[in-house]
Amino acid sequence: MSAVPAGCIFDEDWWLDAAAPGGWQRVEVRWDQVLVGSLSFAATRRMGLRFIGLPPLTRTASPWLQPPPGAPGHALMKKVKILAALMAQLPPHERFDLALGTNCPNALPFVMLNYPVGHTYTFVAAASEASRAAMHQKTRNVVNKAARDFEVVEGADLSRFFAVLRSQFGAKSRADAADVQRLFDAAHARGQATVLCAEGAGGVDSACAVLVWDARSLYFWLSARNPECASTGALSLLIAHAASLAHGRGLDFDTDGFGTHRSGAFLSKFGFTPAVRPYVSHGTGLWKLSHLVSSALRGERDDRHYRY
Question: What is the pLDDT of residue 206?
Fold first, then answer.
């Protein structure tokens, strides 16, 4: 596969190789032998339907669109033309799902091609921001108390994260341990990952988080909290500590999205800035019928699940 200019960690070839070994693809467009567009994706099959989407534990995948210089008024339509050529190369599928990078500038070309685009959100603290001062007073009090109750330990022992994850979710965890281990090993080998643990009395971990980063942002990628620990401030402490680590590295801090409205309300109290993660989706009539039936059987969901 051709090299694409480096950007978000989730777009890197080595990340995709670890996320879906042999299971991801890239389509490209060249004009006059010059690379002007690319899109990476994973093709899967579920219940007989073919899906185009993200590899496991990969949060975003943004198309790279770089038309040659020209009149500003023509730039958008050139991007639309490039994206159309990329989409035409995708394998046959019933469903297309793609979360674009935070504040991705290439969402509009999807709209121009009649692909529905929804707004999902994450929270971001710019590298220059002093996030602790912007916290809600109650959240700041929780973090300050947790700092007295716990020691934040940083290292590379992923087994501590898995132990807390099992205590919280048991067998219901959506994260496959082998996928997490491959991705962490690949990122840590490049100096782009670490594990944070909030260690309490007796050396018991009340919460753990896995952070990954690139040249621009540090992501609060995975986290878990031990439900047997009485304190609820350990996770808040890790978020604040991770934001401080990002600030110290000169990176933006990205909470890496959120899964439910309760999680969104929790993160909003840290004083970070809401940022859009565009979500592109499109399904055939067959997929829509299948989704209608499965939704009726499953019942109402509590997570952000955008389906058009």
Answer: 95
Q: 């050139």: which residue's tokens? A: 78
The span from the first CA to the last CA of the chain, in angstroms, equals 31
Q: How many CB atoms are located within 10 Å of the residue 228 CB?
A: 10
Q: Is the pLDDT of residue 306 over 50?
A: no
Task: Report the residue count for the chain.
Answer: 308
Pairing of strands 193-199, 151-155: antiparallel
User: What is the spatial distance between Cα 153 and Cα 64, in angstroms, rounded to a whole number?
Assistant: 37
Q: What is the CATH number of domain 128-250?
A: 3.40.630.30
DSSP 8-state assignment for residue 92: P
Single pTM value for the model: 0.90
d(CA 120, CA 307): 12
How many angstroms separate the CA atoms of 231 and 175, rounded?
24
Q: CATH number of the domain at 9-117+279-298, out of 3.30.300, 2.40.30, 2.40.50, 3.40.630?
A: 3.40.630
